[in-house]
């Protein structure tokens, strides 16, 4: 959500930002939004004047002469009817304005590459060497099969497509990754917090899932409850409607939760294996900081650095991708993705997504703080980044670290979380 006064004062900049993000006038009519706001302002003024006039008449009845009272009463009733119509119109206009306001995306950073879709994303750097095997490497599905690490066919009969059940050392590896990342985040000052995977509707508007991505969300109508696609959803509303003190900032959360996504727009993509499943586990980095773009950009770089360190600890070759304006989504001001190398696909695939949201979410959740310098109440900035998401991260991990016999090497930094094991496999 953007401040309507900011929109009015910077309407050309807003239109340019919408164009960069791929919005047309049919998608979002800014001139119409501004005109509606001005109509609402006029209606508020006129309805207030009618209310004051009606109150003045009502207060004058007792002091009026008997022969004047009925006329005053009649005028008061007429004003009351007029006020009722004005208020009905005002409420309707405000509801319409609110719906349009929630559809307003964040403006992209001037530093973000401009492009229509993922073809406009820019590789900023590549880290690590892509492995060259002296044997024919297996994909992650073959590795799971030969090591008895999964029950993919059986679980599909039980739970449907795009579900997974992993076992033995691979199940332990999944949990080990999260423990390693949670320890790293704790060392960096994050508060570890486990959160529910269910949410009321309001937080989905607060995060920005709604009204943009309803088809991606699981909904349970009997309970009027949604399943969460990320701990960010819950953490973003955890301090909603609060006024924090500046010395409480930054607030750093490392949120751990099961996550659920319908993957409605992914028909035919990655239907086999662990890349794109309906339920997964995720450790999420979430930051609440001061309303200062230099401050939030500093945290954006910090979050990115932490995730790069995670991939380096896992000894995975990866690339840093800066996401362009047309691919970054409504809430984002600036976004980086990290992509790890997947040998079987001969390409890099996303493992982390790191975003600066500025005050766009905080305005939707009414999350504020009191500035120490001037005492003013301001909307906070929020940022988020994947800590680790599994089972997706398991795919590049076991493929990059595989040996000819199907065993998988465990990097030094992860070995303490795997009971000291240097390799895992069926016969180890």
What is the share of helical residues? 25-40%
- Report mean pLDDT, rounded to a whole number: 94
| Cα separation of the termini | 54 Å
What is the helix tally? 12
Query: What percent strand?
Result: 15-25%
- List SSEs in N-to-C order: HHHHEHHHEEHEEHEEEHEEEHEEEHEE
State the CATH class of the largest domain: Alpha Beta
Computed structural class: alpha+beta
Q: Tell me the CATH superfamily of the largest domain.
A: Bira Bifunctional Protein, Domain 2
What is the count of distinct domains? 2
- Cα-atom radius of gyration: 27 Å
Strand order, largest beta sheet: 1-9-10-11-14-8-7-2
- Tell me the number of strands: 16
Which spans of ≥5 residues are poorly predicted at pLDDT below 50?
A: none
Secondary-structure arrangement, i.e. CATH architecture of the largest domain: 2-Layer Sandwich
Bulk shape = elongated
**Describe the biggest sheet?**
8 strands, mixed
Question: Mind explaining what this structure looks like?
Answer:
With 428 residues, the protein is α+β, with helices and mostly antiparallel strands. The chain has two domains: 99 residues, Orthogonal Bundle (Helix Hairpins); 307 residues, 2-Layer Sandwich (BirA Bifunctional Protein, domain 2). It is built from twelve helices and 16 strands. α3 runs antiparallel to α4 and α8 packs across α9. The chain is elongated and about 105 Å long.
């Amino acid at each position: 959500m953007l401040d309507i006064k900011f929109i009015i004062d910077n309407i050309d900049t807003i239109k340019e930002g919408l164009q960069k993000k791929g919005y047309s006038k049919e998608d979002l009519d800014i001139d119409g939004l501004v005109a509606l706001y001005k109509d609402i302002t006029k209606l508020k003024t006129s309805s207030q004047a009618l209310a004051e006039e009606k109150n003045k008449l009502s207060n004058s009845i007792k002091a009026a002469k008997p022969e004047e009272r009925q006329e005053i009463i009649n005028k008061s009733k007429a004003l009351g009817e007029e006020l009722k119509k004005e208020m009905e119109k005002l409420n309707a206009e405000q509801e319409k304005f609110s719906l349009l306001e929630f559809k307003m995306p964040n403006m992209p950073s001037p530093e973000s590459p401009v492009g229509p879709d993922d073809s406009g994303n820019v590789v900023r750097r590549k880290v690590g060497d892509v492995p060259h095997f002296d044997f024919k490497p297996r994909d992650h599905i073959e590795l799971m099969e030969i090591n008895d690490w999964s029950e993919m066919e059986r679980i599909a009969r039980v739970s449907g497509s795009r579900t997974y059940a992993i076992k033995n050392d691979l199940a332990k590896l999944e949990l080990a990754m999260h423990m390693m990342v949670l320890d790293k985040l704790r060392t960096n000052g994050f508060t570890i917090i486990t959160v529910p995977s269910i949410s009321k509707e309001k937080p989905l508007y607060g995060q920005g899932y709604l009204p943009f991505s309803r088809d991606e969300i699981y909904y349970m109508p009997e309970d009027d409850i949604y399943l969460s696609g990320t701990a960010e959803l819950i953490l973003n509303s955890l301090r909603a409607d609060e006024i924090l003190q500046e010395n409480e900032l930054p607030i750093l959360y490392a949120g751990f939760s099961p996550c659920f996504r319908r993957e409605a727009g992914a028909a035919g993509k990655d239907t086999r294996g662990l890349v794109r499943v309906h339920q997964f586990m995720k450790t999420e980095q979430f930051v609440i900081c001061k309303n200062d773009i230099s401050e939030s950009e500093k945290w954006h770089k910090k979050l990115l650095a932490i995730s790069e360190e995670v991939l380096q600890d896992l000894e995975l070759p990866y690339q840093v991708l800066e996401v362009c304006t047309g691919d970054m989504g409504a809430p984002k001001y600036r976004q980086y993705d990290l992509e790890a190398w997947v040998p079987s696909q001969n390409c890099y695939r996303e493992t982390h997504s790191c975003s600066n949201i500025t005050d766009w979410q905080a305005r939707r959740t009414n999350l504020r703080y009191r500035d120490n310098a001037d005492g003013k109440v301001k909307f906070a900035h929020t940022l988020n980044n994947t800590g680790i998401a599994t089972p997706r991260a398991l795919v590049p991990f076991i493929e990059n670290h595989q040996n000819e016999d199907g065993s998988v090497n465990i990097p030094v930094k992860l070995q303490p979380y795997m009971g000291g094991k240097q390799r895992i496999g069926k016969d180890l």
